[in-house]
Amino acid sequence: MCLGVPARIIAIADAGRMLAVADILGERRDVNLSCIAEPGDDMTGQIGQWVLVHLGFALSRVEEADARITLDLLRQVDEAEAGRGHLKASLLA
Predict the structure, then answer these.
(1) Which end of the chain is more exposed for a tag (fewer CB within 10 A), N or C?
(2) Domain range for residue 54?
């Protein structure tokens, strides 16, 4: 099963390569923005945006409320499976 995870863009790592730093479940990860931005775009406008990340690529923008609901549901599933921390580790692997 493939799973996209909501993340918040917190910084631009390399505007020329369209790379950002995103917060995913409290962890910082490099994310490629080439699926949601055009070359030459002002990347600073991406900071603070919520995106859906899969395999290191931001595939689409999402509303903050939807992102938070999804993250909460993922946490609930993790807790229900008695694998607290397992979900976070598997999503960030």
Answers:
(1) N
(2) 5-92
- Please count the structural domains in the chain: 1
Residues 78, 92: Cα–Cα separation, whole Å? 14
DSSP notation for 42-90: -GGGGTT-EEEEETTEEEEEE-HHHHHHHHHHHHHHHHHTT-TTHHHHH
- pTM, entire model: 0.80
Q: With bands split at pLDDT 50, 70 and 90, how would you rate the model's confidence at 87?
A: low
**How remote is the C-alpha of 17 from its chain's centroid?**
18
Give me the CATH number covering residue 72: 2.30.30.140
